Amino acid sequence: MARNGYRVAVVGATGAVGTTMVRVLEERNFPVSDLKLLASSRSVGKELTFRGDKVAVEELTEKSFEGVDVALFSAGASVSRQFAPIAARSGCVVVDNSSAFRMDPQTPLVVPEVNPHAVRGHQGIIANPNCSTIQMVVALKPIQDAAGIKRIVVTTFQAVSGTGMKAIEELRLQVEALVRGEPLPRQVYPHQIAFNCLPHIGSFLDSGYTEEEMKMVNETRKIFEDPDIQVCATTVRVPVYYGHSESVAVETRKPLDVKEAVALLKRADGVQVVDEPLAARYPMPLDAAGRDETFVGRIRKDISVENGLVLWIVADNIRKGAATNAVQIAELLVREKLL
Amino acid sequence: MARNGYRVAVVGATGAVGTTMVRVLEERNFPVSDLKLLASSRSVGKELTFRGDKVAVEELTEKSFEGVDVALFSAGASVSRQFAPIAARSGCVVVDNSSAFRMDPQTPLVVPEVNPHAVRGHQGIIANPNCSTIQMVVALKPIQDAAGIKRIVVTTFQAVSGTGMKAIEELRLQVEALVRGEPLPRQVYPHQIAFNCLPHIGSFLDSGYTEEEMKMVNETRKIFEDPDIQVCATTVRVPVYYGHSESVAVETRKPLDVKEAVALLKRADGVQVVDEPLAARYPMPLDAAGRDETFVGRIRKDISVENGLVLWIVADNIRKGAATNAVQIAELLVREKLL
């Protein structure tokens, strides 16, 4: 650590996740001595505010990482594939929010509440998991520890912010056009998203699953270091701005009763239990927006199987699902003296 | 059959389902000689159009069913509990869209594509299943027949029209208020529904499940006449006007490969397969609205279990989920000479 903090770069600084990374660095008081905001040449000239100061966006180049201690990447997989290795070679530790390195055996895939030890083996790049995976493993961690997870059947309700700024704008413009009786703009999604549900996130594979669905399968196994966990995912885009919701049926190896599961979840790191159904209290994306916790409710026995629980898991996909998790990884690197 | 058709009553004629029942009777050219529109005294004075004629709404009383051959009820369980037995005693056959008699062992619970034979034993009242159950059993019928269903894990994405006219209005008013930056009206749901998801449909039971979730369990078993089918349901309200979507993982007793399942679904009564993911073609509530078919897509192997399939099932909850199914039951009664 040079001077009174670390030299931090945010790559993709003007995106939905990048702008939130800057805000979270400030909110969590991460020890930043210098902040470098990097983006494509199109964003040069823009400014973001950090601790009351305007910081200009600079163009991302191969030389951007000289003197940088840690770089938080959120500019898509192709930018990460090109620039993360360059940043790592220049001595900077990369926390990468894209899918580029997540399944690379050399790259730790880390959720600080779940597998913090995994950062230790890093070789310059640490991957941030997919948003839908993060909130699910945070909620399932105490269940995996207590009873072992055999199978997960998950269906997601994913907010448009997960697609990025343009998708947030598309939902807003579609709703406004509908209210005014005007023709609907449509550029980001293949179908109208306002007042609709699209069972389509990421590209489709030959198996009929989407990339997003297989991320939930493969990343869950890697984070839990348990290749025997069976996962079936259906991922769906819904007309919500912020906050992914997940309906999760989890079958455990050993019995785990609901009361015990609730007690474990209440003690779990990063989890907030919201489960008073008779008072109409359960997690909702509108309440999770802007928060860093993973909210868990509707906790009940799965009546269709011997050892099973059903959960409703909600988190802010841009914060815990991306920006906050990345900053937490940087904090973990500081604590582990790996920066 | 008197004269050139049947004397038909619609109870709850001014509601979201009732008005659609009248439209569907006309569209499907049901042999109606007289149409009686019944509702509470608050609706007296209103008129609906049937085959070009205005029909006045009359107040529902104990004498309303004299001379009526078939009455389609959709005015809530308490109205059905009070008036359906009176109607049946006056010689009229009741098709009841409420939950009042669905689980009564004397009352057939009928989806014409699935268990048409069940109407034969009727004793004056035939129940229309819950909207979420209807579309699921239509899609699962060929799978049950071919391979036997062991377990269903279902998560629903339910439109506000399922709650009724006032809920449709609430979503519309909330969206308009948000666009205009005005305070949000909220009367129907316990939380904002616009841009949110509520894992709460029907009242909560001590088990942590909702009434809606248990309807899917119990009605599925009754319709398939198979008490061994295990069902775990999570039912969620989403900001969609018309069309329920369902993410369904079904475990079968015998193996059934995806190609065979698709072939069976393509031939199944009332089903339309929409499953060309590479062309971004899959069922969506926006496309299902106004249609009578049950749309099935995203058909794939459940990779988390030995014998399993995953499906995405969408139908118009007001039409196939309620009004159309009720009119189809009336048509079945005509075919079976039970009217």
TrEMBL record, chains A, B:
**UniProt superkingdom:** Bacteria
Q: Which CDD domains match?
A: ASADH_C_bac_euk_like (cd18131), VcASADH2_like_N (cd02316)
Supply the alphabetized keyword list. Answer: Amino-acid biosynthesis, Diaminopimelate biosynthesis, Lysine biosynthesis, Methionine biosynthesis, NADP, Oxidoreductase, Threonine biosynthesis
EC number assigned by the record = 1.2.1.11
Q: In which pathway does it act?
A: Amino-acid biosynthesis; L-methionine biosynthesis via de novo pathway; L-homoserine from L-aspartate: step 2/3; Amino-acid biosynthesis; L-lysine biosynthesis via DAP pathway; (S)-tetrahydrodipicolinate from L-aspartate: step 2/4; Amino-acid biosynthesis; L-threonine biosynthesis; L-threonine from L-aspartate: step 2/5
Residues annotated as binding NADP(+) are 14-17, 42-43, 161-162, 317
Q: Tell me where in this chain the Semialdehyde dehydrogenase NAD-binding domain is found.
A: 7-122
Q: A single Gene Ontology molecular function, please?
A: protein dimerization activity
Q: Which top-level enzyme class is recorded in the Swiss-Prot or TrEMBL entry?
A: oxidoreductase
Q: Where does phosphate bind?
A: 102
What this chain does, per the record? Catalyzes the NADPH-dependent formation of L-aspartate-semialdehyde (L-ASA) by the reductive dephosphorylation of L-aspartyl-4-phosphate.
**Family affiliation:** Belongs to the aspartate-semialdehyde dehydrogenase family.
This chain belongs to which protein, by name?
Aspartate-semialdehyde dehydrogenase
State the gene name recorded for this protein.
Answer: asd
